[in-house]
User: What shape does this take?
Amino acid sequence: MKGDFSRIRFDPLHRFSRVLVQQGRVTLDADANEQQAINLHLLRSLAADLIGRHGGPQGGFVVTSEADAEGRGSELVIGAGHYYVDGWLCENPAPTGYRGFGETPGQPWFRDPPKAEPGVHLAYLEVWERHVSAAEADRGGDIAAPDAIREVALDGPDTTSRAQVVWQVRLQSGAKFGLAPEQSLSDEEWQKLSESWFPAARGRMSAKAAEAPVDTGDPCTVSPRSRYRGIENQLYRVEIRRGGTAAAGASLAWSRENGAVTLPVAQIAGARVTLADAWRDERFALATGDIVELADDSAGLGAEASPLYRIIAYDPDSATVTLDRSPVETSDDPARPVLLRRWDHGVTRSLVDHEVPLVEDSWLTLEDGITIRFDSDKASPATYRAGDYWLIPARVALGDVLWPRDGTAARAPRAIPPHGIERHRAPLAIVMIGGDGSIKVTRDLTRRFRSLVELS
Assistant: This one.
């Protein structure tokens, strides 16, 4: 969630059932957001307990093949309706093509699915939640549109953002896993198969700012790195940019504003980018030397991370940014708005393609005394996933970051898995693709339940 939040603190292990507002107290965004997270957790847990790992009413997300003029199955169609994955509701309002064909639209959050090679494939459903800012939702900056998030009476500023449940139907080759065309999958078999594609070890990171001062014998000497030295309360975001193992070149980026400094783009002409609106506030401003990303509506949808660029010139009067090279993104389609997002690791040394190489078992300094470390595991090397992130709240009052620590006297920071992105998956069908392009669904793997009205 790349939003302007003070912190995200919901933890299901606390078993909190609600947030209680006390009279005369300050209201915080974290409290309201935690209440929403509690509600969702309870609702999705109930749905998962009643429905199981996955299931839905008749028709929803059933995968079929649609015949062409020669009578061969040539296109995959995803049925309209509802389907639940680990309690998460997926909605498909109308029949949708895997890739889109004729008058059948393609998947709403999977613009260009890869074309599958001949052989046996498993069609599976993947669902997760992404953050949508007002700049992204109000396409073209039209705040007067009826469905705009921003209130036109306020003349432009955003107030809230949204979380959006998105889904994709993907195909995974089953050849190397010995998947048979008529095979059924139990929950245990699906779990084992899924973990072979998506290793559970996604990396573990620890963070700290306060350290025990070095004993120099001089009581007036304090280690300059012993405290968080920022003058603002911040929510740092450390995000994996390039996935894979550390040895294979995984990389990261970090932002002191949780990646929330985003500006809508009006025009891209070569290396010159004209912004539709620019921050004048110093905290959210752009400057020469900043590392930025140009993200379109495919951001956060499982695609590879957009390239990063460095600003070599910035004119705040004309809201024009000059990048170190011409971007691959374009601003030609008003239905696909482009945002410029600022990252704050531009001062980090040894960047590769403007990204920070991920190194394990070594402390990396971000800024103002904050350091992070990724732990290695020789027995099971971590496979980092692009888009995964950790959030580090830094507080001036403590001179430290809010991070879990162990129970020893040293109070060492614990290495923890990513805070997100949590993706949920369910098998839908086994699909056979012939060498002539024919497509046949050989096994339906969905699970169906009837409504109480039908049962009565």
Remarks:
- The longest strand covers residues 119-132.
- The two ends are 43 Å apart (CA to CA).
- The chain has three domains: 12-51, 54-198+423-455, 204-401.
